[in-house]
């Protein structure tokens, strides 16, 4: 079996007096598609944010692709990572946000080319060629010159996916990427993600309330509650035969709310 | 009967000085606004402290006093400036302090989501500021910058106190020589107004330019 690409070891995350993650450990294999589900406030989004270095951790260690994320080796020990180390680590990871976070002052094409040109020194022509391939992949090549404000939510999110892919990360994080969309626009974004999952061997971590999609998409489901992994397993195990009562209650509520499993 | 053409010419010469002061003062103010405004949001405490001190000092003391210091006190420290240089320096530093807070406010107004997108795309702080934050913050600054520039224009009149022959100074000369109060003062009233109008028109044009496309209307 391949070594894990992400190894989270006993991490603690506190916001003031509030402990969001309390000694959490988990591993993700290369190429694995992982869905994190659970009630809001259970810490699942926090994990993605920590992996993207948008948060700091209060304690513990995270290893990504063989290197420490928040620490770096120095004089035989580990010290907190400096900016350079963080930049090097972020190259491996991309993230798509619930609210797209496109750059409103740049056209679709420039949104996708900006980071490769700035962070990897890719020439404009090469960056644009690659961007057009990615926009074609998400079905938006004809919108390359549009401004984000001219796009629908689903289109914006697809651009955001292309933008993250432009840096060729090994790991992609999807944080409730369909939660801010009108129901009829959800499917076009999910389709892009299905395509991505089938055509690449990227490791993908997904926080979602789309249980049906999580079931079809993920190799493994993690059910979170109050900062802990209550239950994990293959989609069929979790959705058809949840062992923990907490999982059963959560799934019942979700189904009662009209979500398809 | 007074021959007014010569006197109006005198006032126009003064108008040129006022214009010079306004343009150069605004240029310096703009630079100071960005230097101190970005200094205020620096992650280095020493930079923040320096920027804050500058802003509080120049906002908290009178432009008259600042001008006198620049013109009359600096020579004791070995720095002698021409009246024009002193005027530009005092006006630029003074208005720049107000502008700095405008820059800081606008930069802060660009929200967490944009900053997080920059981190996720692995931009450095400088790249994020230059390519993402500032281009979006600029449209927010312009209306207040326009106010500041007009304030600076009107503030230029204080330089007559250090014997610089600006528009207001010349109007007083004309008044003293002709004994007529209405004409010189009416002339500079109109001239100040026209200059202010030119500033706000230019700023509106600039604002339209930098906000192009942000509202989703194709241009």
TrEMBL record, chain A:
<dbReference type="InterPro" id="IPR050086">
    <property type="entry name" value="MetN_ABC_transporter-like"/>
</dbReference>
<keyword id="KW-0813">Transport</keyword>
<comment type="similarity">
    <text>Belongs to the ABC transporter superfamily.</text>
</comment>
<dbReference type="Pfam" id="PF00005">
    <property type="entry name" value="ABC_tran"/>
</dbReference>
<keyword id="KW-0067">ATP-binding</keyword>
<feature type="domain" description="ABC transporter">
    <location>
        <begin position="6"/>
        <end position="251"/>
    </location>
</feature>
<keyword id="KW-0472">Membrane</keyword>
<dbReference type="InterPro" id="IPR027417">
    <property type="entry name" value="P-loop_NTPase"/>
</dbReference>
<dbReference type="InterPro" id="IPR014343">
    <property type="entry name" value="Ectoine_EhuA"/>
</dbReference>
<keyword id="KW-0547">Nucleotide-binding</keyword>
<dbReference type="InterPro" id="IPR030679">
    <property type="entry name" value="ABC_ATPase_HisP-typ"/>
</dbReference>
<keyword id="KW-1003">Cell membrane</keyword>
<dbReference type="InterPro" id="IPR003593">
    <property type="entry name" value="AAA+_ATPase"/>
</dbReference>
<dbReference type="InterPro" id="IPR017871">
    <property type="entry name" value="ABC_transporter-like_CS"/>
</dbReference>
<keyword id="KW-0029">Amino-acid transport</keyword>
<dbReference type="GO" id="GO:0005524">
    <property type="term" value="F:ATP binding"/>
</dbReference>
<dbReference type="InterPro" id="IPR003439">
    <property type="entry name" value="ABC_transporter-like_ATP-bd"/>
</dbReference>
<protein>
    <submittedName>
        <fullName>Ectoine/hydroxyectoine ABC transporter ATP-binding protein EhuA</fullName>
    </submittedName>
</protein>
């Amino acid at each position: 079996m391949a070594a894990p690409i992400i190894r989270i070891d006993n991490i603690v995350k506190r916001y003031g007096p509030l402990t969001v993650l309390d000694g959490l450990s988990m591993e993700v294999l290369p190429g694995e598609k992982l869905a994190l589900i659970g009630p809001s406030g259970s810490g699942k989004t926090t994990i993605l944010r920590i992996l993207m270095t948008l948060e700091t951790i209060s304690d513990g260690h995270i290893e990504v692709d063989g290197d420490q994320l928040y620490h770096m080796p120095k004089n035989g020990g580990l010290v907190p990572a400096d900016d350079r180390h963080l930049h090097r680590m972020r190259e491996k990871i991309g993230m798509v946000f619930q609210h797209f976070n496109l750059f409103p002052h740049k056209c679709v094409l420039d949104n996708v080319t900006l980071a490769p040109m700035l962070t990897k020194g890719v020439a404009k022509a090469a960056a644009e060629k690659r961007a057009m391939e990615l926009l074609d992949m998400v079905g938006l090549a004809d919108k390359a010159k549009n401004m984000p404000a001219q796009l629908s939510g689903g289109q914006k999110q697809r651009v955001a996916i292309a933008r993250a892919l432009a840096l060729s990360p090994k790991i992609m994080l999807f944080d409730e990427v369909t939660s801010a969309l009108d129901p009829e626009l959800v499917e076009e974004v999910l389709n892009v993600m299905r395509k991505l999952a089938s055509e690449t061997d990227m490791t993908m971590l997904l926080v979602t309330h789309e249980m049906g999609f999580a079931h079809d998409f993920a190799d493994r489901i993690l059910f979170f509650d109050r900062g802990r992994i209550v239950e994990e397993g293959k989609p069929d195990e979790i959705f058809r035969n949840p062992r923990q009562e907490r999982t059963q209650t959560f799934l019942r509520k979700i189904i009662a709310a009209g979500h398809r499993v | 009967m007074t021959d007014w053409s010569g006197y109006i010419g005198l006032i126009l010469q003064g108008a040129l000085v006022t214009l010079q002061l306004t343009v150069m003062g605004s240029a310096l103010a703009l630079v100071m606004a960005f230097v101190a405004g970005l200094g205020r949001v620096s992650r280095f405490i020493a930079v923040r402290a320096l920027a804050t001190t500058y802003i509080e000092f120049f906002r908290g003391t009178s432009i008259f006093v600042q001008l006198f210091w620049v013109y009359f006190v600096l020579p004791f420290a070995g720095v002698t400036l021409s009246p024009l240089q002193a005027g530009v320096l005092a006006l630029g530093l003074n208005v720049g302090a107000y502008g700095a807070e405008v820059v800081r406010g606008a930069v802060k107004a660009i929200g967490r989501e944009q900053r997080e997108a920059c981190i996720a795309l692995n931009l450095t702080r400088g790249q994020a500021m230059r390519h993402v934050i500032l281009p979006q913050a600029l449209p927010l600054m312009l209306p207040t910058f326009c106010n500041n520039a007009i304030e600076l224009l009107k503030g230029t009149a204080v330089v007559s106190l250090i014997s610089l022959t600006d528009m207001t100074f010349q109007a007083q000369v004309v008044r003293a020589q002709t004994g007529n109060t209405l004409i010189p003062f009416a002339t500079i009233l109109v001239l100040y107004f026209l200059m202010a109008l030119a500033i706000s028109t230019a700023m509106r044009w600039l604002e339209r330019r930098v906000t192009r496309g942000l509202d989703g209307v194709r241009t």
